Peptide hydrolase (Ogataea parapolymorpha), 371 residues
Amino acid sequence: MAPITGLAISLVLLVLQTATLRYIGLLWPVKVPIFEYPSEFHQNTVNGLIERINETRITEQLRHLAGAFPHREFNSDTGESFAVEIESLLRDTGVPVDIYHHGWRQPSLIAKIPGTQQSKVVVGCHLDSLNLVPFLSSPGVDDDLSGIVTLLEAIRILQQNPWEFRQSLEFHFYAAEEPGLRGSLDILANYSDIVAFLQQDMTGFSAGAPPHFGVVEDYASESLINYVKRLIETYCTIPYRSTRCGQICSDHSAALINGFPAVYVLESELAASNPYIHTERDTLEHIDVGHVAQHVRLVLAFAVETALMETVEARGEQSVRFRWTDIVILSATSDTLRFVMACIILSGAVANLVLVLRSGGHRNLFKLHEN
Ligand SMILES: [Zn+2]
């Protein structure tokens, strides 16, 4: 076969294979509905709940879980037994829990406080941990044991009251966030009716700057960004700073990819966040429990105020744009077989291109063009 024919065939195959990639549609913006979130708050109710936040209990929970589960990789024994432990702690609070099994060891968990309507308010965190250097331990105390205990403390307090929520409230503990949002993408692809999603991933480090929240403003719903800022001003005692991820940095992006309004609030702006994550030094000594308690305030406020919302009519749509690098990351991690095929075809195309250039075939092409 002439090199030029080989090149043409491999280019056609490359286009056909790329078109089958699961996340290729993200080349176009995702339409996410814009909801009107509450502007008047139930301050007596929420402040009554905030008074019950118990920092000693948060500290003990962190110590126990960090000591018993020094690493929690998504496809490991300890990753799986850690999910079983969190399920048991959730059931101790009296909240119903669904277990979601994936194609790896660690399941995801979904705790539910039902409302009178179908629509859902979701707060997320992730169960797995990661060390970027293989075979070294991955304690992941800030990333994301801190988010897990934030949700556990909020659920415990909410469960002490009989609620009549309108929106159903769900707390999602996702498996396999670290290898590319695999747990949340699995679950949220089959979801409907999420009207607000708040991610809590890294809530415990405050040494990088005077304590503040980081509100992620790229990869987020504008209406939710403004709403959580008002909640922070009303219910928390530290300020916020706007920050940017620059990529699909946590499970809120899986919500956006599936067309649900989402926002991510972490321990600080990215530049001041915990420098020890994804290493064996992401340990208890760097955690400020008072900072975790600020996040519990935010989660309680977000959960109660949003779940008490009367109507959830969309008043428009926002276009959320993803980068081509996001598509490469998502395809490599969550659509691996098709991605590997595309890479093989691409290398074939490059090899054919080299052959064409060496054989001078491109000059014939230019001559044809000139004639
Ligand atoms: Zn994380």
User: Anything to note?
Assistant: Residues 126, 143-144, 177, 201-202, 250 surround zinc ion (CB under 6 Å). Strands lie at 30-35, 97-100, 108-113, 120-126, 168-174, 194-199, 213-216, 240-243, 262-266, 314-320. The mean pLDDT is 92.
